Amino acid sequence: MNKKIASAADIHPKAKILVDTLVSTGCTIKEASLIAGYKGNSARVNGSKMLHKPEVQKYMMQVINQTLGISSAKAVNKLMSLSAGAKSEYVQLEASKDILDRAGFKAPDKHQHLVAGDFKVTIDLG
User: Fold this and answer.
1) Rounded to two decimals, what is the model's pTM?
2) What is the CA radius of gyration of the chain?
């Protein structure tokens, strides 16, 4: 079984524009469909049908993953910047804890243990 990975060449040009617009702007399906060139009142329906096609869904996941990869690099940079130079020590602490957590150095969870039952303490001072 040889499965082919979806690429921009495998899908209709309108579908590519539709997916790229949805991912980059976060607009509605109707708005992205109109930008992609689907016409009239049926733009949302036609765009939605296109988004249900397996090859379009594969392409959309590739675009989302690529976008997340780029955005995560920016987010790491911002987190490092906050950890090193935020005016608030609280922000520096939280950013530093988040960096350590993501690097696998999470502090152990604190647990409160409650003991049920009666106990008695006697102190003899004499």
Assistant:
1) 0.62
2) 27
> pLDDT (tens digit, 9 = 90+) per residue, 11-53?
899 999 999 999 999 999 999 999 999 998 889 999 999 999 9
Are the C-beta atoms of 50 and 14 separated by less than 8 Å? yes
Torsion angle defined by CA atoms of residues 62, 65, 71 and 76, in that order, rounded to the nearest 10 degrees: -150
* Pairwise CA distance, residues 30 & 76, whole Å: 33
Are the beta carbons of 29 and 43 closer than 8 angstroms? no
Give the Å distances, CA to CA, from 32 to 12, 60, 87.
15, 13, 41
Structure tokens given for 14: 């309108």
CATH number of the domain that 27 lies in?
1.10.10
Do the domain assignments include residue 67?
A: yes
In a domain, 14, yes or no: yes
Residue 28, token pair as written in the block: 């509605």
Task: Tell me what pLDDT residue 126 has.
Answer: 75
Residue written as token pair 């922000």:
91
* Residue span of the structural domain in which 39 resides: 8-71
